[in-house]
Amino acid sequence: KDIVDVVEFKSTEQAYIYFCSPFDISINSQDMYLAKIALFVLGQGGFGSRLMEEIRVKRGLAYSAYAMLDVNLNYSRVFGYLQTKNESAKTAKNIVKEVFDNFIKQGVNEKEFELAKKFLVGSMPLRYENLSKRLEIMLNEYLYGLKIGNLKEDIQKIKNANLKDLNLFIDKHSEIARLSFASIENEG
Fold it and tell me: What does the radius of gyration of the chain's CA atoms come to, in whole angstroms?
């Protein structure tokens, strides 16, 4: 598993680290709801997500650290970022890699699973709180060739999801551990 690491050296107070990995899933996959749960636990969920816990809470290396699902008609990937002290850049990258590797090996535990489901289902009304948001969701569903109402169906699937299926899904997607990094760090 070769890691690509491109570093640009500039005079900067902080290291800006971006990372990305492939994710072999299509926008119309029947498993998209599992991808949403998995990425919420891994890094999209803010506090409580694996990345935030390891990078900020346990080690205090960054104010925030995220990994997000980015799937559209042309590509699918997991991408993320964090900002840290220049002298902590290498350590932070190693931790990101370790978190992704452990995520594939260990999957999601029951507590993480239930919290992710609760948040994703519970935040649904906010996505539809005004006409503009509802129209944007419907337009995106149309443009991506999805059934109108796809998001609502995914939320129902998330509500009914089980942990065993999620962990089998994660195990099948070890490609997300093939991380590439791009960072801007201090010249010193």
Answer: 17
pLDDT digits 0-9 by tens, 27-36: 999 999 999 9
pTM summary value: 0.90
* Cα–chain center distance at 45: 8
Vertex 11: Cα angle to 87 and 86 (nearest 5): 10
Q: Residue 76 and residue 70: Cα distance in Å, rounded?
A: 6
Reading phi first (left if > 0) and then psi (alpha if -120 to 50, else beta), residue 48 is in left
Task: Return d(Cα 174, Cα 87) in angstroms, integer.
Answer: 30
Q: Give the separation between CA 95 and CA 88, rounded to whole angstroms.
A: 11
Tens-place pLDDT, residues 173-182: 999 999 999 9
Tell me the CB-side half-sphere exposure of residue 140, using CA atoms within 13 A: 12
> Residue 68 contacts by C-beta under 8 Å, 6 or more apart in sequence?
39, 43, 44, 78, 79, 80
